[in-house]
Design goal:
The complex is a heterodimer of chains A (265) and B (121). Chain A has 265 residues and is an alpha/beta fold. Chain A has a single domain, classed as 3-Layer(aba) Sandwich (Rossmann fold), CATH 3.40.50.10610. Chain A has six helices and eight strands; from the N terminus they run αββαβαααββββαβ. In chain A, the strands form two sheets. In chain A, strands 2, 3, 4, 5, 6 and 7 form a six-stranded mixed beta sheet that branches. In chain A, strands 1-8 form a two-stranded antiparallel sheet. Chain B is mainly alpha-helical and 121 residues long. The chains are: A alpha/beta (265), B mainly alpha (121).
């Protein structure tokens, strides 16, 4: 795992201290600190990323992309066996559960949830996701899914990925040359119109044996680019997911943070 | 006679003091050799052995900040955050102005906060 930027900066400062000290009684050593997983996954041998209720930009299928990305990460960075099955149509499942007293076919005989709630036809923002939230608390439904797949750890949740625009004053670094041709870099405040995307995934971890929620975590990422720069939605999506992944993986497995320290004599 | 006695007393005191000082020096020397050996093995990634050496050094000379600083690092590497915190704090207590110890401790605290957030879920 890559060390967070704060740690990297501090490591550089540490190096500077060493250089300035110029002392032979100090020894910089690399260390690999283990950070324990947030969740005890020892009862599980398999993990099933069943899918997400997603919305926002139509340029990216946030559900499919998240499923694909998380599964590929889990395959290489977790000891759990990843179940390869088609993602569940969770939006439809939530609607079916809310609409009828009798569970819809394929819903696994679960009890209806969020009965009478109005579901938006299109999920455009975070508020539209609210009616779907009740699905994650439907233990009977998740237990049934768990039984189908030999009681794995179930990963699901919501993913909102939507375009965002902002304009205002930003600080930029500009090169300035004086009369003698000497170059300096000065911070300058400029007005700028920027556009980009906001990513808000909420990951829910469910016990496939009982159907109950074990742990859930929400994230918020935002990337803004100068309006002249045409950044594809998918590339921004992966850029932002990249920031979320270390924490996601640390939920299921111990990660190691690389750094360096100074031994003294 | 009185002068002779007080002279003898003073001499005894000086001898005593120098004996204590040399015992301290001896302790520091022994502790230092343990610390050096610990550094050599830590650089080869043998952290358990390094812990053993630095713990001995800290026992032999409990005023030796470097031994506690190094112990903090080794405990951190082994994921023993509570012990690491105590070792760094002891090192800082002994040498509050030491920038290297402070820097190590600051980096440790950042990691420790993250580990605490995980276990607190």
């Amino acid at each position: 795992m890559i060390a967070p930027s704060g740690i990297r900066v501090a490591s550089l400062a540490l190096g500077a201290v060493l250089v300035t000290a110029g002392c032979t009684s100090m020894y910089e050593v690399p260390i690999d600190t283990p950070i324990q997983a947030k969740l005890d996954v020892t009862p599980f041998s398999r993990v099933h990323v069943v899918g997400f209720i997603s919305g926002g930009s139509e340029d990216v299928d946030a559900n499919m992309e998240t499923v694909r990305l998380l599964r590929s990460q889990l395959r290489t960075k977790s000891k759990l066996r990843v179940i390869e099955a088609d993602p569940l149509p969770l939006q439809q499942v939530a609607r079916d559960q809310a609409n009828g007293p009798a569970p819809a076919a394929g819903n696994g005989g679960a009890a209806p949830v969020a009965a009478g709630m109005a579901f938006p036809t299109r999920i455009a923002d975070e508020k539209d996701l609210e009616p779907f939230e009740a699905l994650f608390a439907n233990a009977a439904y998740w237990k049934k899914i768990g039984e189908e797949f030999q009681q794995p750890l179930i990963v699901t949740g919501t993913v909102m990925f939507r375009p965002h625009q902002a304009s205002g004053i930003v600080t930029q670094e500009r090169e300035v040359y004086d009369n003698f041709g000497r170059r300096t870099v000065v911070p300058m405040r400029v007005y700028m119109e920027r556009k980009g995307y906001i990513l808000r995934p909420k990951l829910v971890f469910i016990d496939g044996r009982t159907g109950s929620v074990l742990y859930q975590e929400s994230y918020r990422e935002e990337r803004l680019y100068p309006s002249q720069q045409n950044v594809p939605a998918l590339s921004s999506f992966f850029e932002q997911m990249d920031a979320v992944l270390p924490s996601f993986l640390n939920t299921l497995s111990t990660t190691r943070v690389r750094g360096s320290r100074v031994l003294l004599k | 006679m009185t002068n002779f006695r007080s002279g003898m007393c003073a001499l005894a005191l000086v001898l005593c003091a120098s004996a204590v000082a040399s015992a301290d020096e001896q302790a520091r020397k022994t502790a230092q050799s343990q610390v050096e050996f610990g550094i050599a093995v830590a650089q080869k990634n043998l952290w358990q052995e390094a812990v053993f050496r630095w713990e001995r050094a800290a026992e032999i000379d409990p005023t030796y900040a470097a031994a506690f600083n190094n112990l903090g690092i080794a405990y951190e590497q082994l994921g023993k955050f509570e012990q690491a915190g105590k070792a760094y704090e002891k090192a800082l207590e002994l040498e509050p102005q030491n920038l290297s110890i402070q820097q190590n401790y600051d980096l440790f605290k950042e990691i420790n906060d993250r580990a605490k957030r995980n276990s607190g879920r």
